[in-house]
Structure formats: C-alpha cells, structure tokens
Write a structure and sequence with these properties.
With 171 residues, the chain is α+β, with helices and mostly antiparallel strands. The protein folds into 2 domains: 118 residues, no CATH class; 44 residues, no CATH class. 18% of the residues lie in helices and 29% in strands. The chain is built from 3 helices and 12 strands; from the N terminus they run βββββββββαββααβ. The strands form 5 sheets. Strands 1-4-12-11 form a 4-stranded antiparallel β-sheet. A two-stranded antiparallel sheet has the order 2-3. The chain has a two-stranded antiparallel sheet with strand order 5-10. A hairpin with a 6-residue loop joins strand 2 and strand 3.
C-alpha cells in the first residue's frame, strides 16, 4: 500500500544535527534514528485503505450484571422482597456484553499489519492541527505543509476520518 502522504521533518532525536551524544560512552556518534540524514520520514495512510477487521471479540459489560445495572421500583424507600437488579443497563442496552474490537485490533476496526508498527491513529482534524504546529515550529517547511493540506483535500477526507501515522525509523 502506498502512503497518501510522506512528510519529511527534522529528526526529533538529533534535532536535525545528524549526530548526537551517545548516552553510555559519552562520545558523539551518528544519529541512529535518522541514519545521520538529519531527517525523519512520517508516512500517512488512510485507515479506510486497510482491510476491515472481522474478528469482533466478545466482552462482558462492566456496568451491569447480565444486562441489568441496578434495582429501581419507583419507591423512595424500597421494601421489595426481591431487590435484584431490574433496570436495563444503558451502556450495553441490556445485552450484558459488547462486541468489541478492543482485543483483536486495538479498537481500530481495521487490520494494520505488524510492519507498520509503531503507528498512531489520528483524526484528520488532529493531523491538520499537528502539521500546523510542526510548521510553526519550523520542523517542516511551507512546501510540506502545503502538500499536506492539498492531500487532505484531494482525498475528500472529513474532519473525523482516521489516518494512520507511521514514523519510519531507520535503525
Ligand atoms: Zn537524527
Ligand atoms: Zn424495590
Ligand atoms: Zn451493561
Ligand atoms: Zn477487530
């Protein structure tokens, strides 16, 4: 799969200096995070381009007991003999469990292969903000910032569409 956008930015580890102080030996060495190029690449993919995850997992609702969350009989002072829960849980709509992607795919609903790790999933609105900050801090130039804005437009992203951000680390 091709990234929809690749952003070059100053290496966050050596701050673009291409070399850094080695923590253990105290000597200057070539920055291993950018392989001495002073730049790191961030690749951005559209989450919707990945395969959808079909392994929904079954999770018990933490808010209730088999779909009922508490007892309510409409009396201020309850004198029911049976005080068992009778109110449907509103978190799971009385089902007592959730079908969730929390365990199978970290809640993304998509299958993102291992080789993309470590990745972050962000909303389009979030990435726009972040790019602006990077631009303001002069970590990316106007050209990259422009490229990003045009890309988001071109792909018809909505504010809350998700993108996958992969920081390519050359180690
Ligand atoms: Zn570096
Ligand atoms: Zn009662
Ligand atoms: Zn529940
Ligand atoms: Zn899943």
């Amino acid at each position: 799969m091709k990234p929809i956008l690749t952003i070059k930015q100053k290496c966050r580890e050596c701050l673009g200096k291409k070399e850094m102080l080695h923590k253990d030996s105290g000597t200057i060495w070539t920055c291993p995070y950018c392989s001495g190029t002073g730049e790191q690449e961030t690749e951005i993919y559209a989450l919707r381009d990945f395969d959808e995850c079909e392994d929904l997992e079954f999770e018990e609702c933490p808010n209730c007991d088999e779909g009922y969350s508490h007892h309510d009989c409409g009396e201020d002072t309850c004198c029911c003999i049976d005080t068992s829960n009778n109110v449907e849980c509103d978190e799971c709509n009385g089902k007592g469990n959730f079908m969730s992607h929390e365990l199978c795919c970290k809640g993304t609903g998509y299958k993102i292969p291992k080789e993309y790790e470590p990745y972050e999933i962000k909303k389009v609105s979030g990435i726009t903000k972040e790019m602006y900050i990077l631009y303001n801090d002069r970590k990316i130039d106007g050209f990259q910032f422009d490229k990003c804005c045009r890309m988001l437009e071109k792909h018809n992203f909505k504010e809350d569409d998700n993108v996958v951000i992969v920081n390519v680390r050359v180690l």
